[in-house]
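Table 4 source record.
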Amino acid sequence: MKLLKKVHIYLYVVSVVLTYYATWPFIKILSLKPSGYKTMNKFRRGWAAVSSGLAGFFFKFEYEQAIDWSKTYIICPNHTSNLDIAAMCVMIKGDYCFMGKEELKDGIVTGLFFKTVDIPVNRESKMSSFRAFKAAGEKIKGGTSVVIFPEGGISDKYPPTLQSFKNGPFKLAIELKVPIIPVSSANTWEMLWDDGTKHGTKPGICNFYVHKPIDTTDFAPEDADKLRDKVYGIINEKLVA
């Protein structure tokens, strides 16, 4: 069983790389102008679904209420697996981008997106964080939803536990009066924890619970901690249920 799980991670990597390079010429052309970014995201949505499906990973979304994807949101999922990224690509039906660690600019698969559509951030640098959240604000004002993993990374513990949340996304949501959608990723780590290299991977259905959007219009700037704790509680309650 352990050997099969180790072999399966290579199947997934091959699936991701081959499907990415099959679409790369189109994505590269689209990346040359900002007007092509929305179509890049459509390619990414399809690529995420196909590359995951070929390796036997499937995403199931349960909604507390229907989401109006014509509106703009900050989407805050917990983060236990690289599959969470693919799942968000599949889930979001409107235009979107990710905020993620700066190293993703150098990734074979993630690099092109993080140099164009997405927002890289060095969380050790206050200036980098300031610029990243300013860029996120501009994206939101332009009608693009932003996916921010509020834990700031994947837990080193296995099995993973929900880590404390950073304040950034909640301050931004209050400042721009944009709703937050909490997302609980319940069992994705069981299929693929982190990048899958330590414990291997196995095919299966990854379950996500999409909570109803939280209206932030009544929150004042000093309520960022209150909003952060509210979102943490909502996500955690579903994870431990």
